[in-house]
Amino acid sequence: MQTGSPIEFLYLTQEDVKAAGGLDMRLVLEAVEQSFKAHAEGKVLLPPKIILDLDEKKVGRINAMPAYVGGTFDICGIKWIAGFPGNPIKYGIPRATGLIIINDSKKGIPLAIMDGTLISAMRTGAVTGVGAKYLAKRNSEIVGIIGCGVQARTQLMALKIVLKELKEVRAFDTRRETAERYAKEMNANLDLNVKAVNTPREAVEKADVIVTVTVADEPIVKNQWVAPGSLFSHIGSYQEEEYDVVLNSDKIVVDDWEQVKHRGTPVLAKMHSEGLIHEDDIYGSLGEIVIGKKPGRENEKERIFLLPIGMGSEDIAVASKVYKTALQKDIGHRLTLWSNPEFP
Predict the structure, then answer these.
(1) What is the pTM of this model?
(2) Which portions of the chain are predicted below pLDDT 50?
């Protein structure tokens, strides 16, 4: 005889996620900063991400990123996100597509399944925003962006909020038309002075904040271009700068050093495997800085290098906020997992 209670969960399309605050960068910044706080306080469980590599650079890969986030969240979840670089040209669809599942931490039952593509893009921009809040000069006026895809948009959305004195953005992409389209769009959407430039050097020189968000695996940025007092946020998964950019930084900050080493491909992981940097060279985690365990920027001359590999806890924190807003606003679609469990 079948017994037990029905189990339902909320399904949120990307449009639903947007309606529930997923495109609100202030909400996302708050959630991501809180997730860093929880991480530094030992309230996060974060297994290494699982990478289903289908020949990552030529075809694509899918990442599974589980996490439990405690504190004010107290929720479990997983992001399952695919990155297939040929999608835009071959199929006319975005490079990345993702789903997020969140679960009740007491019963384990699913609470929601939602689009994770938007949340992933927004939280990645927010990570640089949180980093800039603690690591950039307060009077930062110039941002240099290398790579003008989707991620570059959310990076600038976050920086516009955090950098109160931001006046100029220089954007470079290997496709000039992409940089020009990005500049036009960001000018209109964010009311910023964004201009496309012809070389990486033009983007980087004299910039207070530098963001590299590419799929390159070769040094684009040269050390001699990087100004004293700058914050360098390395978002790409490979190597986007000369080793000397890292070696000449006064502080090296990560989101989670073990996760960076596990991924293996970012510049810090490569340098570590080659014996060029050691664990003692890592100043600390962004979470440690958020909770005040370690100071962030301490003077106007420090060059700071930030490499956040990306943690599932960030996605789950944002998804939790979106879920709660969706419940309050009656957004989404109720689906039934079972009416009565077959094997209670």
Answers:
(1) 0.94
(2) 1-2
Q: Write down the residue that tokens 């271009």 correspond to.
A: 225
Please give the CATH topology (third level) of the domain spanning 126-307. Answer: Rossmann fold (3.40.50)
Which is the catalytic residue, given 18, 43, 49, 79? 79
Q: Which own/partner contact pairs does 187-190 have at CB distance under 8 Å and 24+ positions apart?
A: 190/156, 190/157, 190/160
Determine whether 79 is an active site residue: yes
Percentage of the chain surpassing pLDDT 70? 99
Q: What is the pLDDT of residue 4?
A: 67
| CB burial string 294-315: b at 16+ within 10 A, e below | bebbeeeebbbbbbbbbbbbbb
- Does residue 126 contact residue 254 with C-beta atoms inside 8 Å? no
Tokens representing 45 are: 């469980």
The per-residue pLDDT for 57 is 80
Residue 222: CB partners within 8 Å, gap ≥ 6? 201, 241, 242, 244, 245
Let me know: does 246 contact 305? Beta carbons within 8 Å: yes
Nearest to 73 by CA among 286, 308, 289, 324: 324
**Homologous superfamily of 7-119+312-338:** ornithine cyclodeaminase, domain 1 (3.30.1780.10)
Annotated domain spans of the chain: 7-119+312-338, 126-307
C-alpha to C-alpha distances, 255 to 96, 290, 292, 323, nearest whole angstrom = 22, 11, 15, 25
CB 305 within 8 A of CB 245: yes
Q: In Å, how far are 66, 206, 260, 278, 289 from 271, measured between CA atoms?
A: 27, 26, 11, 9, 23
| Tens-digit pLDDT profile for residues 198-253 | 999 999 999 999 999 998 888 999 999 999 999 999 998 788 999 999 999 999 99
